Amino acid sequence: MNATKKTNRVAAGIDLGTTFSVVAYCDGQSAPRVLANSVGKQATPSVVCFKKGEILVGQEAKDEQEFGNPNVASFFKRHMGDSTFAFSDGSKSYSATELSAFLLKKLKEDAEAQLGEKITDAIITVPAYFNHFQREATLAAARDAGLNPLRAINEPTAAALAFGIRASESTAGKKYLVYDLGGGTFDVSIIAIDAEEIRVLATEGDHLLGGKDWDDRILRYVADRFRDETGLDLFADVETLNEALVRAERAKTELSARVETKITVASQGQKVSAPITRALFEELSSDLFERTSDLCTAALRSCSPPLTWNDLEGIILVGGSTRMPAVAEFMEAKSGKPVLTGVNVDEAVALGAALQASADLAAEDPQYELESAERRRRLKMSESHLVRMQESYLWRMPQLADVCSHTLGMIAENDDRSKYVNSAILKKNSPIPSQDTKRHKLNVGVAENPELEVYLLQGEHERPLDNVVLGKYVFSGFETGGAKEIQVDVTYSYDRNGVVDVAAAQVGSARSLTRRVEPVPDDMSWTDGAPKDLTTKFTGNLSIVFVVDVSTSMFGRAINKARASFLSFIEKFDLKTTKIGVVRFSDKSQIVQKPTNSMKLLKRAASKIRIAPFRLGIANAAVPLDDALRCFPEPRVKVDRSSLVKYSSKKLRDLAFARSSSDDRRFIVVLTDGRWLWRDRAVKQAKLCAAQGIDIVAIGFGAADKRFLEEISTLDEGALFTDLSRLEESFSTIAQTIKGIE
User: Fold this and answer.
1) Strands, E, within 574-724: which ranges?
2) In degrees, to the nearest 5, what angle opens at C-alpha 494 toward C-alphas 488 and 499?
3) Rg, Å, the chain Cα set
4) Distance between CA atoms of residues 236 and 335, nearest Å
5) Is 164 in a helix, a strand, or coil?
6) pTM
7) What's the mean per-residue pLDDT of the chain?
8) How many CB atoms lie under 10 A from the CB of residue 150?
């Protein structure tokens, strides 16, 4: 009995391509096979069309593209994981993930019709050089299409798996280069094949290089001819562009079968026919071939130990674009090695994925007739069962050993603390799943509650911003024991999908650290500057007054977030040397708590951070900085009125500090979500505070006026405009600013 029948789970392999997609199936007992789509074709165009409220996918959408329909989405695979990409049909915008989900749903339905069973699980293939975001977006699209993604595997690896099943003793242990040129991506993998295992030694690629770029060379050539003969721009409208793109793609295909073709385009009442020979086409695209060659060379060099072309047994071509005769000719000339045949370049990726899908489903279900030697030992199988397994197709399938396609690092200081660099932790081409740890020094200065910010980088460049910033992870809960520097082990792990996780542990401490994930800031330009000196921290006494907006616009989630942020804020200070007070305001202001170092009183004050319309009003007519000033016990300094007009808050603050000899520091922290009615009066009060040597920092969100916040703030970094989801993060930044200021 078929194992999938027992479990009611059916797994497919899906090659989700840039131009065409293919679905294959393997039952574990016989060779994998491609499942035809609803029009009887093996490959489905990766095209989606929005037409009069209907969503067309595949060949129907491709036909609409040829007819010049502007609401046709294609080549969206190149934008997977790109949050800035959106395709609009005029009424709604779609992400690349959503478009891919439409395509996957169509592939699933067509395959189910062919198979006669519901497909529940799938392995989806991705370009080897897809990063973390692109892989996660692909898996999300599969889930949105109603599939359980067993995992994502690299396209050249899947193709190698399909080829490896045919390995014999004569090929055992020999190395091959898999040259995978699809419609929109290019990948190269160096593999070692034998009857038991396929090992990926190294991988390189470019997800913005593929057959489409060869199409574009024909398109550009024809557009230049059209301009030379008519003086007009061929791409003056979207319909003309779509039609010309389809004709260019068709011409490329025709040149794979014959040495000359002709492409005719029409626009703005003009028509031009341009003959194109295969030799001309190869000349137009010669630099594209060289780009693939450079990536092949880089993959060979990144093997351990480095390899040369002479170390290879042959070249395996994969992907529909390798049907261009020039590809085989170019690679044979470049490598001096034969191009191997026997693999259908259009189907190899899906077939390999189907093999792995069947094996993965077997590994997940104990009823499945599993192929591995380890499971055979564990299962105490009967002799008849062992015979059945030996006859199955999966029994002969080599195991898969893939590698990660990118280095994972973090932003750290270099040895002499002169700049920020990418500190590599998990190296490119490490076997996956994989995990590695690197020890870093954390300079904590005199911070009471130090935090480690780990910015996860994906890429090999030394400069942090030349890589992809995947995420920000903040670790806290360190034991400092008065030390100015502690050691932290940062661990990165890559799962079999190429998705990343981050962990950290303090060296010599049994305490587990707390981790929170925060959004990556929009502005990361600080990484190009010199690291700040954390050793000279302010060590005097602090007095802080928290001024919080409690107008009715703060009702609900906003006021709750404000209260939680205040409690988080006070925990970042040593109350032995810090006093904190609270002023709340709406149409009126009220001193809730004068600065105190009592945590009990501060928690009581926090409970009063709530809407109070009957006592304080509903809008922002109060100017609360005067009440905030009264919270400080020192007598006021007489201020010349002319200086309030002449100088800004920042300048008045600097003048006050120039004449002050006190080591103590005073701050007012303002939180507001609305526009203040008496703005000019508030600015004047801010200047009066600044003239007393009181620093003002301000956090705004919602309808708050960013320019106003900057005007009342006395510090360059003291005005933040944020949103509710980042409110606690913003207060954390302000706390670090206050504690670190000189």
Assistant:
1) 578-585, 589-596, 665-672, 694-700, 719-721
2) 115
3) 32
4) 43
5) helix
6) 0.60
7) 83
8) 26
